[in-house]
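User: Can you help me understand a structure? I only have the sequence.
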Amino acid sequence: MNNMTRTGNDQASASASTKAPANGSAAASATRAGATSEGAVASRDLPAMTPPVDVIEDASGITLYADMPGVPRDKLNLRVEGDQLDIEGELTIPVPTDIAVTYAEMNRTLYRRTFTLSKELDAEKIAAEFNNGVLTLRIPKAAHAQPRRISIQAT
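Assistant: Let's start by predicting it. Here is the structure, written out as tokens:
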């Protein structure tokens, strides 16, 4: 069960201590890590759209899929600070200079989403891919949170 709560300015906070339904497993921790892609850092004061996100947990960690259509790779910014994972992307819509826009439904050009990561995740090992407007983050569980087999010694 994902504990998602919305915070101010279309920001969302998700407790990525994402508790799985019945099996009791939990997703992992964040320590300070720099999973940053190239690109300009967007201002925290600008209004932003919240990208839709799917969070899937398995025994070894969580995978996060964020839909950010129209964002080029160089305008995507990922940052982990403490236990906060920030995702920001600046939308670019090419408009020819000789054409004036008379109507546009997109009035915000920034995506922003913030997640709180549990102590069971290893933020040092976050892997990120960006393909066709979909950001995929793989956040593995820390070694102490991984399931392990205990051998029994004969006496």
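Now, to help you interpret it: Strands lie at 3-7, 11-15, 53-58, 61-67, 76-81, 84-90, 110-116, 127-131, 134-140. The first strand starts at residue 3 and ends at 7. Let me know which part you'd like to focus on.
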